[in-house]
Amino acid sequence: xxxxxxxxxxxxxxxxxxxxxxxxxxxxxxxxxxxxxxxxxxxxxxxxxxxxxxxxxxxxxxxxxxxxxxxxxxxxxxxxxxxxxxxxxxxxxxxxxxxxxxxxxxxxxxxxxxxxxxxxxxxxxxxxxxxxxxxxxxxxxxxxxxxxxxxxxxxxxxxxxxxxxxxxxxxxxxxxxxxxxxxxxxxxxxxxxxxxxxxxxxxxxxxxxxxxxxxxxxxxxxxxxxxxxxxxxxxxxxxxxxxxxxxxxxxxxxxxxxxxxxxxxxxxxxxxxxxxxxxxxx
Length: 282
Description:
Blueprint: H1 4-13, E1 14-15, E2 27-30, E3 45-48, H2 57-65, H3 68-72, H4 79-87, E4 97-98, H5 100-116, E5 137-138, H6 143-151, E6 154-155, E7 163-164, H7 169-178, E8 181-191, E9 197-209, H8 218-228, H9 230-237, E10 242-251, E11 254-262, H10 269-277
Parallel strand pairs: 4-5, 6-11, 7-11
Antiparallel strand pairs: 1-5, 2-3, 8-9, 8-10, 10-11
Protein name: Secreted frizzled-related protein 2
GO biological process, one term: non-canonical Wnt signaling pathway
InterPro entries: Frizzled/SFRP (IPR015526), Frizzled_dom (IPR020067), Frizzled_dom_sf (IPR036790), Netrin_domain (IPR001134), Sizzled_CRD (IPR041772)
């Protein structure tokens, strides 16, 4: 069954006159629970073969799972729509492809994240293979949504800053002055059923210096930074949850972490620096 909301979404994203048909005999099948990427997307049945050329769920499920970590980074708000239109196309009379413009938008935002993990944008998702708009296809985001999306600070791929274990109150205050934001947060990791690690924050995020961070989005931003910079995340989370003060900058909508201090209860330097910061002049 297809949720009325997804039909509205599809109709709002479609452009022009005709749809795409791969010329093969296809069938409608339920989207399996194991295909987590495309669960709860507004419809429960997909067509096989799909637009990636997969003919069975034995191919679709593991191949789609390879994209789970990328989607968790939030590299583009329509990355999931784009990928599910290919791996689990909605069961309508004809195939509806993503437009080339949607592919380009997702690629330009998500390819740098793949590159951070040592992978390039796959040839199977070459944007030239998708219609330029003269055929019916899923179009890009509205201009209003694109503008709003650009306003949210987004984490970037970067080298991992050293974790500072021993420091003075003066060092911490200088770090607060030199950076746009500073937060205290507990970082942790958990292993999923599929054997991959996910990184998360535990408890509240405490703002020491808010800067350009958005309070309601900061937790997600930190978790996305950990996923993008997984080598750094592994070092920070180790074998148990750890508390850190993270200081960084936001420039042109990009978040960079510059200083990381390991917060230990027995060390009073952080506490004193945080208290003094309220009245400190850089």
